[in-house]
Predict the structure.
Amino acid sequence: MIKNSVKKILDFLIGFFILISFYFISYFIIKFLHITLPPAILGIILFSIALINGIIKEERIKTACDFLIQNMAMFLVPFMGGLIVYKSTLARNWLVIFLVIFLTTTLTIVITGLFVEWGLILIRLYKIKKLQKSGGYND
């Protein structure tokens, strides 16, 4: 029983260390190369590449990710406190804020859909060319 608890704690710590490491690695890359990009964005990109290429196994970070997802509301408390501080500004500009949120969300969904559709077309074309080269596809 104790071994199981220790294993869970170690799995969490290792996963959390991996996640934090990507943030700090991206932070130093950005500082060194003078890139104007938030470290979190570069960290997500590097982390995704590492996951896709199998450099990091999903099992190594699962415990930490599950914990962070389950406690996500705790991380939003400071954000909500900040909203209360700017209550009067938000009240004066609610229509503009709503329109910006609505339009950018809609635009993001449409552009994402178009990119996914484009990607699927490229994958199909790649598979067709591969089959044609192997002689398994005839028009």
About this structure: The CA atoms of residues 29 and 35 lie 8 Å apart. Helices lie at 2-33, 39-52, 58-70, 72-85, 87-92, 94-134. DSSP finds six helices and no strands in the chain. The longest helix spans residues 94-134.
